[in-house]
Every structure is written in structure tokens, then in C-alpha cells.
Amino acid sequence: MKKIVIFLISATLLICSFDLNAQTDGCQFRFVLSDPLNLTGWPPERGISVTVDGVEYGFINLPWGTPSAEDTLMLPSGEIHFLWIGGPFNPFRHYFEIYNSIDELVFTSPDDFTLPEGLFFTYQNECSECLPLTDFEGEYNQEAKVVNLSWIAPESEYVTGFDILRNGVLLAHVDSITLFYSDNTSEFEDGDYKYCVIPTYPYVCDLEEKCFETYINNVGIKNYSLDLLLYPNPARNELRVTSYELRITAVEIFDVFGRKQKAESRKQKAESGKQKAEGEIVINISHLPTGVYIVKIFTDQGEIVEKIIKQ
After folding, report:
1. Which CATH number fits domain 225-310: 3.40.50.1580, 2.60.40.3080, 2.60.40.10, 3.40.50.2000?
2. CA distance between the termini of the chain
């Protein structure tokens, strides 16, 4: 059963007759329309009818009173037939260009009177290059409180980037040359988490998700950060970790991928022959590259996770 749907988009009337079951995936085609001489639009009965394998997907028209506009249609794989409908074609009244899913110009209306009513252009549309990720991996580093994801991009020149989803919600979109992502989980509630990475294309693809599932456990990590001094931040050469209330036993520094970069144990200062109650650790970080780091601080009352910037 076919349904008729009428859209008004960007002042351009788009009438589509389509089979809803046929649009599980497809490529976006762009139409640039104009009335080059009169600047008043096309007569309402004239325009471009688009069919794929016998199914009509749209009728493209430049509304009366509109000198120029653009419209798009999502078309599946198959043989596309473009037909001029509604009477004689007039190059002084009708001008259009058709671009495929990677924005290549595939047809320009003629500048003479040779465009007949009926079929004027056939295009073999292949939207089958919806390739999934390969070698997808995920890991949860509980010690550093970070989830790391990595993958190898599909062998397709049309990949535009990657969507990162956490529990079904878009977390981030990265470009096509990025092949890893890290998520700091230090403030997460305990529970099950599912991370998925999906390649994106300039057309719609129905791809099987590549996912990593893990249980995040932050039990026992309490936040005593109000009793803690972590300075300077940003830091260049030294990082000082000091508390007047907590006994600091150790400090570990991780990069954003969860790899341990530095570790120091507590040093107590002596004053007047006795040790102070406060704990302090001074860490030399001059050798670390510039960037963001995760600092895990072990105290007598729990663990604290903070971020610092290394200049």
C-alpha cells in the first residue's frame, strides 16, 4: 500500500509517493532548481518525477513565486529513472542540477529544447557500500576509571566519521581519521554500561552495531576533594598533593587511555621533632607530554580521582 506525503521544505514543494518499506537505507540526492529568466518559479504541474525499480519516490517542483531553491530525496540502491512531467520543457523557465550522495554533479538540464516529456535520465544507484567497523575493541580500566574504545575504519572512501554511543545515547561524534575514544567513568553510578561505535556515511546505512559492555564499579571511592589541595593546575614541572585532614598514602597518574605514567608514595614532613598530621606528596611531572591526566589519590579514608592539565 502506498502513501502520499506532502512536505514544504525551504519554500520548495516536494510531493513524494513512496513505499515505506523500501527506505531502510539509501543515498541522499540533491536537486538545485531555478527559474533563470522569469524568477517566478515553475508552473505547478511541471517538474521531475523520480522512480526507483518501479516505485515512485518523489516529484520535484520549484513553487510559483520562488526564483530558486534546493531539495533532497533519499533514494535506495537500484536503477533511478528521472522523468520530466507536465508539459514542454523551457530552458528559459526551467533549470536544474542533480547531485548524487557524494555531491557529484550527475546531470544538468540542457540549454536548448531537447529535453522531452518523460524519461530523460537513468542512473544506477549503488548504496551498498555501508561497511561496518573491523577489529573493534573495548576495555574498562577500573584502576584508572576509564573506558577505552578502539577500532579500524572500514575500507571505504565515503566514511565521514564515527558515532560513539553510551547506553543508546549519542556520546560524541569523531572525524574519520580518529580511531579511538576514552570515557572517564570516575563519577559514574555503579551499573552496566554499553558502548557502541558506528561509522557514518553521507547516506543512510542500516549497520550492525559493534559494542562493548561492562560493569562500572565505583564502590569505595569517596570524594574528599574538599579536604585536598592539588596544585598547581595547570602544572608544568611539579604537582603537589596536600591535605590537612586526610592521610595520603600514594598518588598515581594516568593518561587518558588509562596507562599509568607516574606513581609516588606518601612522604611526611617532620616539624619540631614530630610529624605533622597532614600528608603531602610532591611529584615531578616535567617529563610528561602536554595534555590532560587523571590523578588517583589514595588516602586513609578512601580514594579521590581528579583531573589535571600538564602544560
Report:
1. 2.60.40.3080
2. 64
